[in-house]
Fold:
Amino acid sequence: MTRRVPRWRELRPLLQPRSPELDPVKRAHTLHDLRAAARKRVPKAVFDYVEGGADDEISLRRNRSAFERIEFSPQVLIGGDADPSTTLLGAPAKLPLILAPTGYTRMMQHVGEPAVASAATEAGIPYTLSTMGTTAPEDLKGDNLWFQLYVWRDRGFTKDLIARAQNAGFKALVLTVDTPVPGNRVRDVRNGLTLPPRLSLKTLVDGATKPRWWWNMLTTEPLRFAAIDGDGSMAPAEVGAKMFDRDVTWADLAWLREIWSGPLVIKGIQSVKDARTAAESGADALVLSNHGGRQLDRGPAPLELVPAVADAVGDRTEVYVDGGIRSGADIAAAVGLGARAVLIGRPYLYGLMAGGQAGVTKVISILHEELVRTLRLVGANTIRDLDRAIVRLR
Ligand SMILES: Cc1cc2nc3c(=O)[nH]c(=O)nc-3n(C[C@H](O)[C@H](O)[C@H](O)COP(=O)(O)O)c2cc1C
Structure:
């Protein structure tokens, strides 16, 4: 083999130093990267509040491991474009994706729910505000906002809350049904997490490494359950005593129907039987969900319920699923098994913690890109082409 001296012309491009990207949001390629960035930005107790599940976190792990059972059977030489858009409750959505309700969102990053709602609106997908949110329904702007309801023991109070959501232009009511009592979040107990977080020796030591988070928290509007506590005067014990009416039953759906005129979604269905009852009760959509593994431990992985539930009620009601979706391929998997759309909770909170609204936008755009790539790789031109010939649980 003859050798030669490389020319300067060939060496020069190799030697050009590239400045490292310091912005963790711009640097992120996957949701896992944003999760790692989020962890570095917020106190441990806050990260654990987002990340944790109930009891031994078996439901939490099952949610994720169900996606490892997915096998795609691609069709080749299909040609054409890949269009991930759909309609949800009759409104167009650019992706089969909904941002799930999460309580106390401003604790993760001070910009909170308004930033998440703006990112969702820009991306053309719905965002669901939680009853336990830190922004009042009247203060949120967005094109397709849904309101998540916990029925309170005080029914008059519940009725007022629904009227406020309706007047503020919320498009759908999402009734969460998997919380007759709060789940046992062991991480929060161990971390001594209080809502809002208090300064203790432990939080001060941890906070010393996250000064920016503490600075933002202390110099912006104090955290409060804005939908339910107008002046921020409710003590946490009072909130606890009023919330989570364990006497809500299927019969209450008729009552909700009387006071809410828009689409009704039931979130937290975990069996085919309950999915049938939800459909018979006139729900416009249901969410197969175990609250991200934060309520009942050892429940079924929602993804694994999708085929049977879609077969049982998919012709009458839209079937959504959440828990463990961390990539566009996961969305394709859920849709292929029969779900109309998926919800994500923790992933957009990772984006928010890592970089505010830009972080949430990045999460949605990564999922978009990954979903389009998956559609192309499995040979589907639209998400309606995804079916159980292409996606199966092995
Ligand atoms: C920090 C956090 C707070 C949540 N708060 C609520 C809530 O207020 N209401 C509700 O219906 N679900 C709540 N959820 C559950 C989510 O709506 C969703 O079901 C779950 O996060 C989906 O799982 P994933 O996080 O793996 O995407 C919360 C989840 C998290 C992580």
Q: What stands out?
A: The first strand starts at residue 70 and ends at 72.
